[in-house]
Amino acid sequence: VDFEDVIAEPEGTYSFDGVWKVSFTTFTVSKYWCYRLLSTLLGVPLALLWGFLFACISFCHIWAVVPCIKSYLIEIQCISHIYSLCIRTFCNPLFAALGQVCSNIKVVLRREG
């Protein structure tokens, strides 16, 4: 984030050049040192925390999520064969018959006026 992005004077309103320069320097130096201080104090602990968190997520994904999904897909495959057989046996003939019944329907539109 740059100084001009945070402190922007509108068109036609300007402070003294000295105030602007001191403000710019103060902002830049304080941002620079605050970032260095925070990264020194919190960088290693947060890196450790995020490393631990992503290790836990990876562990759960590898040892729990993927095996559950694979197991589900194996079990659902058997059910899908039975479901497909039922659809082909009962629904396909029914809808074919309904299609034959409705195939001779004709709609005539007349404009009255």
Automatic annotation (TrEMBL):
- Keywords of this entry: Cell membrane, Golgi apparatus, Isopeptide bond, Membrane, Transmembrane, Transmembrane helix, Ubl conjugation
Q: Report the protein name in the record.
A: Caveolin
Keyword Ubl conjugation set for record: yes
In the record, biological process GO terms are: caveola assembly
User: Where does it localize?
Assistant: Cell membrane, Sarcolemma; Cell membrane; Golgi apparatus membrane; Membrane, Caveola
Kindly list the organism's lineage.
Eukaryota, Metazoa, Chordata, Craniata, Vertebrata
Per the record, GO CC terms?
Answer: caveola; Golgi membrane; sarcolemma
Describe its function. May act as a scaffolding protein within caveolar membranes. Interacts directly with G-protein alpha subunits and can functionally regulate their activity. May also regulate voltage-gated potassium channels. Plays a role in the sarcolemma repair mechanism of both skeletal muscle and cardiomyocytes that permits rapid resealing of membranes disrupted by mechanical stress. Mediates the recruitment of CAVIN2 and CAVIN3 proteins to the caveolae.
What protein family is recorded?
A: Belongs to the caveolin family.
Fetch the PANTHER family from UniProt. Answer: CAVEOLIN, CAVEOLIN-3
Q: Which Pfam families match?
A: Caveolin
Annotated membrane topology is:
Peripheral membrane protein
What broad class describes the main subcellular location of this protein? membrane
* Membrane-spanning ranges: 47-66
